[in-house]
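Weekly sync, protein design subgroup
Attendees: M.S., D.O., the rotation student, P.L. (late)

Item 1: inverse folding check
M.S. brought a backbone from last month's batch and wanted to see whether the design step gives back something sensible before we order anything. D.O. pointed out we never logged the input encoding, so this time it goes straight into the notes. Structure tokens as presented (466 positions):
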């Protein structure tokens, strides 16, 4: 049996860990004989880039000479709300780009926008287009060349965001923040506009040939009548009353009526397609085929209804079928926030998990949402445990929970040994092979011009006025 590696923060390992729990320390990676994945083109990151990756992932997970990541690990780092930085096969991917309480200087949230840019992501995956998920995405992609993978509707909104940012005087006020004149916005529409949830599944090249990535539309959370099968939840989502005093607000990055130095408006314009939600699943092609899924919302599968989708139980069953076709989920990065909490608690999340059977669950959407706010994570945790009991989920069917609490678990990396036999499952290779028959999505480029904004993107064209 190979040595099992699982790195986690002290808060995150409050349950029973899969594999050995190892205290993170500088130089730890070298003690394991780490093989660093080469950066694209053999390049070396700038000193600022290396510093940003060290901030995101810690010294045990970043080569201090080049900024490279370990070849044999998948590493996740919670950035706030539903946003994660993930290192896979030597590449850096952001899952959502919204940052709770993003300020001009590091404060309660230990990040500034420059950190996310300097780290040089290769790609951005967006679960849906609401601001508490897609804010900052167009700017980060424009400044780094990262490709964005999102719904067709969200890609169109981001093209308009890009055009606005190119002409924004606050963005252009400083050479360091100005978008380069030759910048383009590369996007991959994961679903076609107005698609029916669960009918389109696409395979993405974002991590090939190291990992297979598939995605499909599912349901955004929504309130539905109380399910008579289960009693309503009793746990209230309470915010720690000490939070405001412990973590006073600084200067927000987003300006008010009188902009302050360093402020910029990087928020997305949003739109009617913001509720179009995408489920992403990533499976490594080597080792034990470590596999993880990410979703930043969970609709009512039982009723087949989501925000922006008045469906039927048939829609929910179709999505269940898509989830069931995926390789065994080792890690589930999933929302613990829902618009359905008052009536049905976290029932909808648990319905997703009843199909996926994840080994490990790490929650997200804890610092923004219909009910969730900064400082409420412990209450949500109690609500999740209560919902499991209300639905009488057997202990054997419950995932190992790695709960996270803001802000102490921001930038506390979880590292998974991709060769560990814990993740091995005989059915994975067959499911990878079956999903490889799905069509491959390709990037398209959007270029903005000052004045009337013209965005050319192959067969897709958008226009907007600044």
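Designed sequence read out in the meeting:
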């Amino acid at each position: 049996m190979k040595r099992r590696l699982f790195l986690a923060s002290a808060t995150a390992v409050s349950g029973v860990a899969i594999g050995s729990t190892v205290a993170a320390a500088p130089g730890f990676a070298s003690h394991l004989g780490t093989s660093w994945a080469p950066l694209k083109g053999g390049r070396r990151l700038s000193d600022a880039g290396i510093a940003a990756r060290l901030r995101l992932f810690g010294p045990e997970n970043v080569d201090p000479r080049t900024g490279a990541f370990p070849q044999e690990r998948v590493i996740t780092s919670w950035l706030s709300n539903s946003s994660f930085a993930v290192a896979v096969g030597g590449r850096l991917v952001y899952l959502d780009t919204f940052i709770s309480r993003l300020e001009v200087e590091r404060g309660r949230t230990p990040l500034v926008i420059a950190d996310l840019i300097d780290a040089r992501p290769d790609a951005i995956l967006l679960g849906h287009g609401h601001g508490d998920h897609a804010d900052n995405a167009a700017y980060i992609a424009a400044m780094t060349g990262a490709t964005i993978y999102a719904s067709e509707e969200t890609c169109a909104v981001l093209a308009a965001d890009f055009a606005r940012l190119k002409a924004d005087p606050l963005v252009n006020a400083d050479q360091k923040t100005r978008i380069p004149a030759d910048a383009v916005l590369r996007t991959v529409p994961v679903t076609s506009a107005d698609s029916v949830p669960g009918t389109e599944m696409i395979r993405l090249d974002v991590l090939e040939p190291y990992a297979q990535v598939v995605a499909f539309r599912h349901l955004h959370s929504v309130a539905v009548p109380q399910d008579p099968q289960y009693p309503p939840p009793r746990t209230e989502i309470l915010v720690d009353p000490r939070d405001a005093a412990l973590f006073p607000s600084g200067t927000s990055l987003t300006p008010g009526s009188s902009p302050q130095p360093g402020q910029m408006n990087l928020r997305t314009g949003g739109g009617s397609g913001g509720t179009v939600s995408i489920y992403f699943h990533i499976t490594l092609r080597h080792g034990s085929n470590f596999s993880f899924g990410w979703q930043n919302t969970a609709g009512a599968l039982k009723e087949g209804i989501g925000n922006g989708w008045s469906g039927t139980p048939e829609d929910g069953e179709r999505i269940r079928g898509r989830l069931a076709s995926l390789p065994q989920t080792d890690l589930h990065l999933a929302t613990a926030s829902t618009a359905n909490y008052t009536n049905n608690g976290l029932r909808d999340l648990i319905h997703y998990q009843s199909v996926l059977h994840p080994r490990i669950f790490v929650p997200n959407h804890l610092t923004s949402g219909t009910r969730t706010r900064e400082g409420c994570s412990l209450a949500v945790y109690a609500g999740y445990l209560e919902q499991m009991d209300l639905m009488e989920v057997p202990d054997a069917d419950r995932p190992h929970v790695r709960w996270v609490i803001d802000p102490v678990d921001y930038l506390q990396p979880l590292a998974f040994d991709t060769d560990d036999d814990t993740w091995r499952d005989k059915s994975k290779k067959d499911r990878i092979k079956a999903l490889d028959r799905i069509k491959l999505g390709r990037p398209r480029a959007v270029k903005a011009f000052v004045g009337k904004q013209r965005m050319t993107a192959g067969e897709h064209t958008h226009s907007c006025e600044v």
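Discussion: The chain has one domain: 5-465. The radius of gyration is 21 Å.
Action: P.L. to compare against the previous round before Friday.
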